[in-house]
Amino acid sequence: MRVISLRGVVLAGLLAILLVACSSSDDDRIQQDQKYYFLESLEQVEAGGRRLQTAGLEQQSLTEALAMLDQGLKLAFQVERQFLEQLDLRLGKNYQRYFIKGVENYRIGIEAGDEVQQRQGLNLLSQWAEFWQAERTAIRARLDQG
């Protein structure tokens, strides 16, 4: 009888260790996904923005640039505020308020031919850029640690 209960305790302990290992692995995967969504959203929007600044922009290039902005937004919506706040308490709020809203306004303004909305988006993106320039090194260092 004691052998069975000891075996049960050992099996329960092994099961607990496996669950913790799987949970830790899942957490690491989620962290890596969040890191990818965040950094890639920034990259896609920046690339789209650079393309939009090209002199003599043709329709094909405009379409590609807008697709980059759309992809950046799609990724941005997958970034969880809690993840960002682990990196910097202001990051989640600023990412939503300045980056996402800025890209949305700018993108919609381009589509609608509304220069006022484009400027609103660019103003928000300018505020994001100011924050990001000041904090980028520290935030990237935290991302690289994780």
Structure description:
With 146 residues, the chain is mostly helical. It has one domain (23-145). Helix content is 88%, strand content 0%. It contains five helices and no strands. It has helices spanning 2-52, 59-76, 81-87, 91-112, 115-145. Helix 1 runs antiparallel to helix 2 (59-76), helix 3 (81-87) crosses helix 4 (91-112) and helix 4 (91-112) runs antiparallel to helix 5. The protein starts with a helix and ends with a helix. The model is unreliable at 1-23 (pLDDT under 50).
Give the structure's gist in a few sentences.
Helices cover 88% and strands 0% of the residues.
Observed structural traits:
single chain, 146 residues, mainly alpha, 5 helices, 88% helix, 0% strand, disordered N terminus
Q: Report the sheet-strand fraction.
A: under 5%
* Helix count, DSSP H or I runs of 4 or more residues: 5
Taking the sheet with the most strands, its summary is: none
Mean pLDDT: 87
Rg calculated over all Cα atoms: 22 Å
Coarse structural class: mainly alpha
Shape label: globular
Distance between the termini: 46 Å
How many E-type strands? 0
Helix content: over 70%
* SSE topology string: HHHHH
Q: Which residues sit in consecutive blocks of at least 5 with pLDDT less than 50?
A: 1-23
Number of domains: 1
